[in-house]
Backbone:
């Protein structure tokens, strides 16, 4: 699925609109973090991941885990767009008895792990990457984490084990939007120097502009950065990216837009 | 019985699995720096491709197993029951049970088998925790003969299972491996009409000995090895409640939330009779050897016998 940058940019716009529509309809969701991870998801799903929507359990597929499970709307929107699920199903998001819950589960084709409680995804990814090594399969495992999530101790357990087992088929991505539900990460629980922390845990670290699709492609296409080492990508992003009055506002972590705000957002994203 | 020939259940568990793992390369053993306490050194030495040590990191331990299982592996986690079921309970709930991964969680040195090490090392709430999680099967085998069959069943059983085993050599309940064992089906060790004693795990032998002792006094007990606590054998409980006036449960677990509670849940719904629950009281227990602790809390045949005689007198 070799798509060019322009195609991915257009796709990102589409996905942003779908995210906001889903949240507005469901009156529930996590708008800020979903908008910050759009380019990361779009680049992975439309350019990088070796996947087949018609065969979601293909043993040689690349694995993607949304460890920041709350940023789910863009994820569902992409799975629907690619045909893992029907597009109409997006209408059921967060509705009674829908499988499209506010955090993803493996009931949905294409979803690899039930996430929503933070700090689990990287360890699960370590397990998948280990299985790939044992079985001599050449798939890669990508895990998207939040920056607030970096405070979870289990992340660092996973980090230690990934380098111990030389999992160069594992790629961790941090959506570094510098905000979490309670405010700036550096005031809630400071993470810096995040890059040095990951390096100290034995990972190859690279920092990118997480909204620059060209940069993202370049980084993803060149993993592992170092043989025998897991790769950690710090993707610098803006929470709420794309909507002027949502960008960089912690209160938009999971706020639902009013009718008026919805109209304004759609105008900005047109 | 000659103490020297008795083997710790963890050793028998591991050796049985080792033989199967030589033939089935999808079996993977995971530990959290617990290869010695779990007796899985054989895997580290002879099947290194099927052995993963994550160091002292029980949360990572469980989630990694989930990832392996999603790729078709058959992970068996060995970790002290006290840490496995509390430190990593959320990973067990979400990454194993909610996600529905085929992972076997083997809690070793369960109950008070770590005796003098204190309450940090006792697992007396593991049954309560594990049986409150949907999709989880909970099994406490009673001796090494049962473990040999159990391990074979676990390899072919698909789904999350928590198994608690002990640390110290214990006397056999069954004389050989030809004992019937079916997940979810209690075993009747003695049959009688005066009282039913339902026990699980390493105190099944105590329950059996109690039944024998009662027999000398002309009281005939039905003794059940309830190795599977979830899903519990409802029919055998219902049938026993109809048959005997009194039901006594015996377990190496806090009396709140364990086997006694599981039995009472069935009894109250289907055929209310009196249930006496014996186990460890709701307190951080006294320390000593496993035997000393169980004796202190009255989990010995003589005391259980007295409680039953008293219970039957009162009617
Ligand atoms: Mg954030």
Residues:
């Amino acid at each position: 699925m070799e798509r060019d940058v322009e195609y991915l940019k257009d796709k990102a716009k589409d996905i942003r609109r779908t995210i906001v529509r889903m949240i507005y309809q469901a009156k529930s969701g996590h708008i800020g973090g979903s908008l910050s991870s759009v380019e990361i998801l779009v680049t992975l799903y439309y350019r990088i991941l070796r996947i087949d929507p018609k065969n979601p359990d293909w043993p040689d597929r690349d694995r993607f885990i949304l460890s920041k499970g709350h940023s789910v709307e863009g994820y569902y929107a992409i799975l629907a767009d690619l045909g893992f699920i029907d597009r109409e199903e997006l209408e059921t998001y967060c509705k009674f008895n829908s499988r499209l819950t506010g955090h993803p589960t493996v009931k949905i084709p294409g979803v690899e792990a039930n996430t929503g409680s933070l700090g689990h995804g990287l360890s699960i990814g370590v397990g998948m990457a280990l299985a790939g090594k044992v079985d001599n399969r050449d798939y890669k495992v990508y895990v998207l984490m939040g920056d607030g999530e970096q405070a979870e101790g289990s992340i660092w357990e996973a980090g230690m084990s990934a380098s111990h087992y030389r999992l160069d088929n594992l790629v961790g991505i941090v959506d570094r939007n510098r905000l979490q539900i309670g405010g700036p990460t550096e005031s809630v629980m400071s993470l810096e120097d995040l890059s040095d922390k990951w390096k100290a845990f034995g990972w190859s670290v690279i920092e990118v502009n997480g909204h620059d699709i060209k940069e993202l492609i370049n980084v993803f296409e060149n993993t592992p950065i170092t043989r025998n080492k897991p790769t950690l990508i710090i993707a610098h992003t803006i929470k709420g990216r794309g909507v002027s009055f949502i960008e960089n506002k912690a209160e938009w972590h999971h706020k639902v837009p009013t009718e008026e705000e919805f109209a304004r957002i759609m105008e900005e994203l047109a | 019985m000659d103490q020297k020939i008795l083997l710790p259940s963890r050793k028998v568990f591991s050796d049985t699995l080792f033989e199967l793992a030589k033939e089935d390369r999808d079996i993977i053993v995971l530990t959290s720096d617990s290869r010695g306490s779990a007796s899985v050194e054989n895997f580290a030495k002879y099947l290194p491709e099927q052995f993963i040590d994550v160091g002292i990191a029980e949360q990572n331990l469980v989630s990694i197993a989930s990832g392996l299982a999603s790729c078709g592996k058959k992970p068996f986690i060995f970790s002290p029951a006290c840490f496995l079921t509390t430190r990593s309970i959320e990973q067990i709930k979400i990454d194993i049970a909610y996600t529905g991964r085929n992972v076997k969680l083997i809690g070793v040195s369960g109950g008070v088998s770590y005796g003098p090490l204190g309450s940090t090392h006792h697992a007396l709430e593991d049954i309560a925790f594990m049986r409150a999680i949907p999709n989880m099967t909970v099994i406490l085998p009673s001796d090494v003969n049962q473990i040999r069959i159990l391990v074979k069943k676990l390899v072919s059983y698909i789904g999350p299972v928590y198994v608690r085993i002990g640390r110290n050599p214990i006397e056999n309940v069954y004389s050989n491996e030809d004992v019937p064992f079916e997940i979810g089906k209690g075993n009747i060790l003695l049959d009688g009409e005066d009282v039913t004693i339902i026990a699980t795990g390493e105190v099944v032998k105590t329950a059996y000995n109690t039944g024998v002792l009662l027999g000398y006094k002309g009281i005939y007990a039905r003794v059940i090895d309830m190795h599977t606590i979830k899903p519990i054998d409802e029919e055998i409980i219902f049938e026993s409640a109809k048959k005997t006036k009194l039901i006594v449960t015996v377990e190496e677990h806090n009396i709140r939330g364990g086997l006694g509670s599981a039995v009472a849940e069935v009894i109250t719904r289907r055929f209310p009779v009196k249930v006496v629950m014996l186990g460890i009281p709701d307190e951080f227990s006294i320390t000593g050897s496993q035997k000393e602790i169980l004796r202190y809390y009255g989990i010995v045949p003589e005391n259980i016998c007295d409680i039953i005689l008293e219970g039957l007198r009162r009617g």
